[in-house]
Amino acid sequence: MKKIVIFGVGLIGGSFALALKKAGVETQFVGVGRRLATLERAKELGIIDVASSSVAEALVDADLVLIAAPVAQTGAILASIAPHLQSGTIVTDAGSTKSDVVAAARAALGAKIAQFVPGHPIAGRELNGPDAAIADLYVGKKVVLAPLAENAPEDVERVAAAWRACGAIIHQLTPEKHDGVFAAVSHLPHLLAYALVDDLAKKPHADLLFEYAASGFRDFTRIAGSSPEMWRDISIANQSALLAELDSYLLQLTSMRTALAQGDGAALEAVYANAQRARLNWQQRIESAEKQNKEGGD
Predict the structure, then answer these.
(1) Is 197 found in the same domain as 166?
(2) Coil/strand/helix, residue 93
(3) pTM for this one?
(4) Rounded to the nearest 10 degrees, what angle do helices 99-109 and 74-81 cross at?
(5) What is the per-residue pLDDT for 293?
(6) Is the per-residue pLDDT at 9 higher than 80?
(7) Which residues, 6+ apart, have CB-to-CB distance to 284 below 8 Å?
(8) Domain tally for the chain?
(9) Per-residue pLDDT at 288
(10) What is the model's pLDDT at position 239?
(11) Could you tell me if residue 268 is inside a domain?
(12) How far is 126 from 98, CA to CA, in rounded Å?
């Protein structure tokens, strides 16, 4: 590829560019964003080669476009891209929700929808902006593609190949399945972490509570340090699936509250033990997969 255009040159988009550069991919990286200062900083850091304020100019002869902006902005970005989208250009995204993004893409791109391949890298940090970008963010991490019926296999492969060059492992899910899965394992945990920290911060003795908060609190609430704007957009975008998971979790909490109120230690221990087994099994699978990926890379 001779030219890659990135909308959003922060953690996700910036790490994508740095990873491809580290992999030796020789291409021109053009950054497009809302803030000129952010683009200039990305250029200073070597993330992009060109900072552009013109979508039309940026898209000329582009091979690949990555939209790495908050999901609420995706529709507007696609609408700005549509009039200038050349036949050989493939567009993908890095949004944490897919059904809403696909709907926005169909509305914005119309007959050009075949050129849009939905995607979602399962990687991140609590930090934001170009300074947070790192070249190895995607190494050994999953990237989920949610191809559309209209996508040509070779276009899906072009997107997959770019992510593989970043060190990622490619998976595929339908947009609906994707949103259901990530409502449970990503979006709900973020909501819970934000809720706990917000609740404690509002208490009159918040300073005392935070003074004694240690590693358990730190680990449980780490993701509450993420971008509020981004997670606001994700929560609303995946509202239906997230509400279903939240309702299920509330039932679990209600059941545990009843056990606690009744002094039913056996019931509480059963939940704790089942959770421990599931957590350890998951951890073993993760460590095994990471070991296989490392050995495969060696």
Answers:
(1) no
(2) strand
(3) 0.87
(4) 30
(5) 64
(6) yes
(7) none
(8) 2
(9) 83
(10) 96
(11) no
(12) 22
- For residues 42 and 115, membership in a common domain is answered with yes
Closest by CA position to 96, among listed 56, 138, 124, 134: 124
Cα-based distances in Å from 54 to 116, 125, 146, 164, 202: 20, 29, 29, 29, 44
Residue 183 DSSP class: I
- State residue 144's pLDDT score: 98
Residue in the structure block whose two tokens are 């680990």: 219
Rounded (5°) CA angle 258-262-268: 65
Tokens in use for 276?
Answer: 């421990």
Specify the CATH number for the domain of residue 237.
Answer: 1.10.3660.10
For residue 63, what is the domain's CATH number? 3.40.50.720
* Domain limits for position 224: 178-263
* Phi-psi category of residue 139: left, alpha or beta, with phi > 0 → left and psi -120 to 50 → alpha: beta
Strand order in the sheet with 28-32: 50-52, 28-32, 3-7, 64-67, 90-93, 116-117
| 3-class SS of residue 124 | coil
- At 252-284, the pLDDT tens digits run 999 999 999 999 999 999 999 999 999 999 999
Confidence of residue 92 (pLDDT cuts 50, 70, 90): very high
**Distance from the Cα of residue 164 to its chain's centroid:** 16
Block residue for tokens 């992510």? 163
* Strand 116-117 versus strand 28-32 pairing type: unpaired
Burial-class residue 140 by CB neighbours within 10 Å (0-12, 13-18, 19+). middle
Place of tokens 């890379």: 297
Rg, the chain, Cα only:
21
Tell me: do 110 and 209 sit in the same domain.
no
In this structure, are 162 and 191 located in the same domain? Answer: no
